[in-house]
Protein 1
Amino acid sequence: SQQGEEDPQALSIQEGENATMNCSYKTSINNLQWYRQNSGRGLVHLILIRSNEREKHSGRLRVTLDTSKKSSSLLITASRAADTASYFCATDYSNYQLIWGAGTKLIIKP
Amino acid sequence: ETGVTQSPTHLIKTRGQQVTLRCSSQSGHNTVSWYQQALGQGPQFIFQYYREEENGRGNFPPRFSGLQFPNYSSELNVNALELDDSALYLCASSSRPGTDTQYFGPGTRLTVL
């Protein structure tokens, strides 16, 4: 079973626009992470947000966490062609196991 | 600083065969996790190794086994391959056991015919 579920499954926007994707999860967590994957290859860590944090920024990325709603969002501002990728959220299911959603496929149109 | 590397990049096997996948962790990292990612899905946790011991395991049968060596590199072995084992196998290393930030290798694409 999947702990995290991303929404939407796919998103297509124009270069320069902002992209927002959401993640919902089912049980309480210690942390939530966002990763990017290009063309079915290795994943790249973007941001880790802990359960006692509400918002975190990294460059053009902004992540929010609402533990009362068991949800998180990833905002990418001023999108670029290089942002085209799949984005995954992962939550800690146990002390050693991350549970992943099926991802949001983001396409940036020139 | 050397990143996570995996070998081979691609592999084709037939049903019933056995396969070994290899991973070298990022320098300074003592923990390795293995994941299976089917096409169009998120990664599924197989197991995690810390200091040569299995630290935790996901919902995978015993024919999926692993090793971690003193230099913290790792192997994933899969016996009696099934068609459903066709997937991208990802290795990730981290500086401590648990669920903090993980650094992924490029993956090994396994096709079982």
Protein 2
Amino acid sequence: DAGVIQSPRHEVTEMGQEVTLRCKPISGHDYLFWYRQTMMRGLELLIYFNNNVPIDDSGMPEDRFSAKMPNASFSTLKIQPSEPRDSAVYFCASRRGAKNIQYFGAGTRLSVL
Amino acid sequence: QQPVQSPQAVILREGEDAVINCSSSKALYSVHWYRQKHGEAPIFLMILLKGGEQKGHDKISASFNEKKQQSSLYLTASQLSYSGTYFCGTEGNTGGFKTIFGAGTRLFVKA
């Protein structure tokens, strides 16, 4: 299996621009998670989906952030408009079933100038 | 609520042992342990489930005290490859099946 695939690996953008991060989970996994990692705040859960339905988005920092999962093999995290404080590494992870191992993608390093 | 990890950082010589602790203020169903090397994604090490079931890594062990809501990760005869940041992630009995990660413990093994 190819594992969780994220794109792009690196994104540099200017403040105010829209940013879209993409994730392809492992086939057969029914849970998908979006995390943000910074030195100050560690690994924060932003939102997670079960069977393509958003279950908990309480970690989404504000309305500028939105996430979708139109089908079982694709999810996006969008930031509009982006701000310098959004600079971080964003990870996507998936797993099969509850209470099980999560597999992380390689992450997207976002820099907002 | 984020679990608390201790210590924040550890420096070891190759062959020495280390223990990393993780505690939660909430009742737990499971505890997960991951290791992350600089610039890479977290990699699964161990999962401990309420009731005692354990899935894990052959070089690393862990314990889960459900009553105390604590878990410990034991690294024995450390190798240079053990260096990295270790995260515990906890899942509670309520609030959905989401994993909340601690702030991490940085481990450095030197020759």
